[in-house]
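chain below, 653 aa
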Amino acid sequence: MTEQAITKETREFQAETKQLLDLMVHSIYTNREIFLRELISNASDAIDKIRFESLTNQDLLENNCDFEIFLVPDESSHTLTISDNGIGMTYEEVIENIGTIAKSGTKAFFEKLKDNETAPDHELIGQFGVGFYSAFMVADKVTLITRTPGQEKGIRWESTGDGTYTIEEIDKPQRGTTIVLDLKEEFRSTDRPEQNFLHNSTIQDLIKKYSDYIRYPIKMNFIREEQERDAEGKVIEGSPVTKVSEVRTLNSMTPLWTKNKTTITNEEYYDFYKNLFHDWEEPLEIIHTKAEGAVEYTALLFIPSHAPYDFYDREATSGIRLYSKQIFIMDNCKDLLPEYLRFIRGLVDSPDFSLNISRELLQHSNQLKLIGKNLEKNILKTLSSLLTKDRPKYEKFWKEFGRAIKIGVYSDFQSRDKLKDLLLFSSSHAVEELTTLDDYLKRMKDNQKAIYYATGKDHASVERLPQLELLKEKGIEVLYLFDQVDEFAIDALREYKEKKFQSVSRGDLNLDDIDTPETKKDTDAIAKENEALIKAVKDHLGSKIADVKISNRLKSSAVCLVSDTSGISLSMEQILAEMNKTMFKAKRILELNPDHEVFAALKDLYAASPDSEAFQDYCDLLYVQAMLIEGLPPEDPIGFADKISRLMARTRS
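prediction:
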């Protein structure tokens, strides 16, 4: 070091340094507490560097190879000190890396390794300068004391963030870097412990949250008061109080996800999951994967055993954490996985993530998109394997999160083809069992053109639908849809393996190839024979219905309502009405069973007097009866009750 460097001097920050510092404090960083993460990350990088260089030059260690990061909160001086025994910096490096924020010491070190054609350790990649300046978010003054191995003197750098800094040579016996923060008053207040960065528990919480998996021990000195105790262990009143110093390690150091998964027990996975996500139950499934190539990352993902109570709330957050080189970056990253996989909990650690990246920048990150696509494939492959190899476990998953998959089919056009084989439904095949669409196809009858489904609130209500009568008679399996989103998902799919979906309550059943020609002929003949009657019923009901038809699907019931295929279904109309979207109406078709005695009575009333009150009452009652079967309330309950009363009175006479 030159003689001139011994004298303390004052320098100005470069203009771009001032601008970037201002931008970082007011724009990039919105959470002031991450300053500790940044400084510890820098300390870890510095230890990484000396550890790497010492592989070829042991003298750099100066007989000190117990790497550690040490924190000292001092309430009397209002300072927080962060020290490491890493590589340290020379006078020139301090000016280059601290005075010029755009220059990164560890980044330059990585470039040096590349120039020497040495295989770089990806753990060394960092951005020292930017992270260092986060200290000014919480400190009125920042002091940096550093010495690199082999140098006689250390360097003291100091600034209040006013645009200038001082730098001088000092004595420093130990290699490495010490940063002293003179905290602003608001960050050492005793009124708000969570914002008091001198409070032991606050520091512990921050280390656990942000730096728990730093590979070197993060230590802190704890002072506790003790008094003499008697034989029973009770404090002896009046005995002198002594202060005992105890050094504790605050971080766990070895991230579970960095271990070889063949060495990790299920209990370790379970404990990690429970602690990280505050779940009392073990996860249903674990996905631990590592990738190298276009992007490098390690992912540890979990499928929970139960959905949280607010899982389907619009404001519920996802549970994917992002880490860079085992340093926490972000919680609840929404841009990693598609919405239908938001039940996944876990983390992704990638050196390609910048520690200083914002949520807005992440949305446009190509690395994040590529990682997300890979993880989506892994998750779907895991679910498919569960469905095939462990059906009970998959059905447990389906009970909790199946609705999310169905929402994905409905709302995510690009994912429909990926998800259709994961769908499960109840069906008429077996009351207690669920079926996949592929299983349904394997049981289809010869010449059956469509996959039939029926909607209702539960199994019992669907079983009683009159629209099922013909299908039951012919032994045709019907899918039962109980969830509101089911029909939307089916409509979005339109077909499965070239078999179209067909609602039992929508349009014709398309059973031509299964029906005998005589059945079709009889229905057409009856409709023609009763053409005038059908027109009279339709005219009376008016705008309530789109059409009246002779039914070929009813066997024992007198009447049913179906909807036209050109519009929404009746069940969809009800769902949309609950969402206050009452402008959407199904085109209602009233179907009459020509073999029912009520139809014979209707014919008699029409023959006697098509304008009679009795005939009109029958028309109205049949329509309301069909509505009630569909779970729709009468449009005029009082009028309906009056018509029932008149019918009962006529029956008595």
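The longest helix spans residues 366-389. Confidence is low (pLDDT under 50) at residues 102-110, 116-129.
thats it, cya
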